[in-house]
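Here comes an entry:

___
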Amino acid sequence: MSFNMEEWEPKTKLGNLVKEGTITDIDEIFEKGLPIMELEILDALIPDLEEEVMDVNLVQRMHKSGRKVNFRVIVAVGNKDGYVGLGQGKAKEVGPAIRKAVDNAKYNIIKVRRGCGDWGCVCHRQHTVPFKVQGKTSSVNVSLIPAPAGVGLVVGDVGKTILKLAGIQDVWSTSSGQTQTTVNFANAVFDALKELSKVKASEKQLKSMGVSSE
């Protein structure tokens, strides 16, 4: 269902600022650390988000009233240009579980630092990670390493999906642990992307790695 700005009635102060045009850039919200309580804010500021269902799993648990069965879905969203989110959803039916996972992924959206961090590449385009980062979830460890243009995404299929949605085109990677567990591998890759923003670097260093200062 497409988003209609005119029909949206914001319920928060931030929502009102976005609808009235006072805030027009999602980065302003991220930089100020403002909590996003309405999905419409994301729909308005990042309108070209794509969704990818990563995994659908049947989860059973015993309850005093009997066996409970739910579908657990993992979804990634991104605009293929620096913004990506990962989320999970559970429900008795697949459709509602996917919807919950999409909403959860949108609330988890992050901005991804991209650059040209491989020593053998001098294209200065934002096509890879600017420096090596590591992510960890449960037993799974994933390292993302800068790669020259043209290498592609040398990572498992789950990682490829997330990185493509983030707008990363080339990367080397290493991993260890139970990488066949989709949820843990996906979360480890997402954790590594989060680490990109935590690394402190000077403007000169970032420029040398092709990272935009915008």
